[in-house]
Amino acid sequence: MKQVSLQYKQAMEKQFRDRSYALISVGIVNKQAQSNASLRNLLYLSNTYNTLRLGKTINTYASFEENQATADGTMLFPPENDIYYQRNDTVGSVGKDILGPIRVAFNTIYDIKGLTIDFGDSYPTEFTVTNGTVTKTYEFKGGTFTCTDSFDDSPYIEITPVHFINGDNKRLRINYLLMGVGINFNNDNIDSISMSSSISYVSEELPTTRITAKVLDFDKLFNVDDMTSFINYLSDGQELDFSIGQTLDDGSIEYLKMPKTYLSSWASNGSYMTFTSTNRLALLTGQYSLGNSIHERTLYDEAISVLTDAGLEPDEYFVDTVLKDITVTNPMPVVKHNEALQYIANAGRCKLLEDNRGRIKLEGNFENIIEPTELVSTATGEADWSNAGNVRFGSDIVYADFTRNFVPADGSMLFIPSNSSEYLDGTTFVSSELAKLDGTFTSNPSITLELPAAYTYYGLSILFNGNHPDELKLDVYYDDTLLNTFTYSVDRNDFYISEELIQFNKLVFSFTKGYPRDRILVNKIALGELTDYRLDKFSMKEEPVGTMEKKVKDVSVRVFTFTPPDEKGRSPEMVDDKVYYTFPINSTGQSVVFENQLISTQSHAELVAKWMSNYYANNISYSVNYRGEPRLDASDIIYLDSELLNNLQVEIESLNLNFNGSLSGKLEMRRATNMLIKEETV
Questions:
Q1: Beta strand pairing status for 38-40 and 253-257?
Q2: Three-class SS of residue 89?
Q3: What are the backbone dihedrals phi and psi of residue 50, each rounded to the nearest 5 degrees, phi first?
Q4: Strand partners, 486
């Protein structure tokens, strides 16, 4: 589910919504030229990979050129040793000579339609571009340079500065260079857009996203008979960016980025142009064979191997570290890259999806609701009678402590035993240190709460005993990466935090200011909801249609065995012993058999069977036409109000979102509750 503002939520809940907007950008980029390009005539202080691949330039080296060294600390000093500039991935490319050209050399001849160039702050106000046949002169006023000119039959592209801003005694600098340009469409020329997405929660099928956009073409930009028309430069795999905007009460527009997709087909009839695009996973059809041997590795390592072999960079994917907990030895079959990821997702009890940035993600999905027993809570700065592990459950056991304004006269507290061996186990967190008169601590007491996998939760609550602290800091982590820090003034004992906590697996609560001359006593910490979205009757155009699927009696997961490997670790022989782990669900119904050759042990098969059984036990699905909500994604958990039940937790398995000046859509959902007794993670 996409993060949005409170104002956006309020705007979408109105009976009569204000105007919606759509933006589409199609990247007409020659990816072959981009990937095979190399830069010439460069100063040694250059990072060509960053210029042509990453586009993340944020720093510039100072040099003794005209107005090219500032005294504000924003520039880097050139390194004394050449080896260091080669490792700096925060800089772009610098021309070798004053007013000299930078040449983009190709390994063959390419047709280029348009250029996108980021020159940075020290940009040329006039420059030329040539491919040896065509030469164009441009005037430029800063920002990002784009043009739509055609440079066909190009063995190279050479950019030569004529004049610079703030003096001409300079070298040409290019932070980012793209062999192409984006074409943008908005409400003025978008006729209609349709987006469909689907996902399988047990990875039985690959997730899909498909976007079809119909745009007006009265200016004949896509006339197939015009050889310089954009349509003749379109190719499979070019990016399509799609955003939906909603007018808020203050008149501003909040845009939500939809899933990034890639062109798969297009057509023009003279007045209209139609684009169809699909998600990146659908394009990962290369063969993966690196895992086709018997060897020990974690599913995490296998996933990284697949994604790397498919040509993805680390910032183009996310693999949940829960996959490090599952070790496999069986060979991966020789399959397409996307199918290999599907094998891993199923064996690792993960969902395979793509986010709105186009990143491929493998996320732990083995339970919908975390029980307190599955959390791990630890603390620093505990009193001898403290039990931080109990903050997951809460307790009525509180020891009387003669600190400031703490002990009531109602008999609700117990006396502290004189012998520490007699301390009761039912207490919760109590800090060892008392707050000073100004409320501060010498060392801030803290509680760490760890989750079994990465989750998103909406809000959490903290219940304090005695006098609540005045200030609290919350650090949100995924593993050891700090995602966010929040600071709160606490004003009550039952304190609620309303933040959207996105994809985290660890929380650290630090108490920075307490009640003077008192301890910190935390009774209970409870995570909030998995969602804050409710599909109510007001949002639906009709009552949802509920369907009960055929009952499943049991789920059987096969345990695969292979003959011993040869001297090279290869084993083409699969043992046909038909060994299964079967988990019962109902007394009657059909049996589901699932085969994934990465599963080689009964314990692994048991985990997967129980995980899949919970899915099949939730055998009621819902379909409904509704007003349309760009915030939602396939794979989201939401609440559904039906004719008989409210606050029914469901998972979105597929969605359709349509735009033609207004929004509409359709959702296919499945009940999402923990039907079975859950087991601990291996």
A1: unpaired
A2: coil
A3: -65, -40
A4: 474
**Which residue carries 């699932």 as its tokens?**
594
Q: What string of H, E and C letters represents the secondary structure of 264-290? A: EEEEECCCEEEEEEECHHHHCCCEECC
Q: What is the Cα–Cα distance from 443 to 446, expressed in whole angstroms? A: 9
Give the pLDDT confidence of 106-121 residue by residue, as tens digits. 999 999 999 999 998 8
Q: How many residues does the chain have?
A: 682
165: which residues sit within 8 A by CB, 6+ positions away? 122, 123, 124, 125, 142
- CA angle in degrees (0–180, nearest 5) for 666-192-535: 25
Instruction: For 601-655, write each residue's pLDDT tens digit.
Output: 999 999 999 999 989 998 999 999 999 999 999 989 999 987 767 778 899 999 9
Backbone dihedral region for residue 311 (phi beyond 0: left; psi -120 to 50: alpha; all else: beta): left
Domains of the chain: 31-178 (2.60.120.260), 372-529 (2.60.120.260), 545-671 (no CATH)
Nearest to 138 by CA among 168, 110, 115: 115
Amino acid 211: pLDDT? 97
CA distance 539 to 530: 20
Per the CB < 8 A criterion, the answer to whether 104 and 178 are in contact is no
Of the candidates 660, 561, 673, 671, which has an alpha carbon nearest to the alpha carbon of residue 191? Answer: 660
H/E stretch holding 352: strand 350-354
- How far is residue 364's CA from residue 493's CA, in Å, rounded to a whole number? 34
Pairing of strands 534-535, 637-640: parallel
Rg (CA), the chain: 30
Read off the DSSP letter of residue 177: E
Q: For residue 79, what are its two tokens?
A: 């390194």
The amino acid sitting at 200 is S
* Contact predicate 456/503, CB 8 Å: yes
Note the pLDDT of residue 676.
58
Structure tokens at 259: 């899933």
The reported pLDDT for the residue numbered 680 is 38
- Cα–Cα nearest to 349, from 273, 437, 452, 231: 452
Name residue 81's amino acid.
N
Using alpha carbons, list the distances in angstroms from residue 489 to 285, 395, 466, 593. Answer: 53, 24, 17, 54
CB proximity list for 425: less than 8 A, separation 6 or greater: 387, 390
pLDDT at 54: 59
Q: Which residues of the chain have pLDDT under 50?
A: 84-87, 677-682
Contact predicate 294/331, CB 8 Å: yes
Q: Checking phi first, is residue 251 left (phi over 0); if not, alpha (psi -120 to 50) or beta?
A: left
What share of residues in the chain are helix, strand, coil (percent, to 5)?
15, 45, 45
Q: Are strands 494-513 and 360-364 parallel, antiparallel or unpaired?
A: unpaired
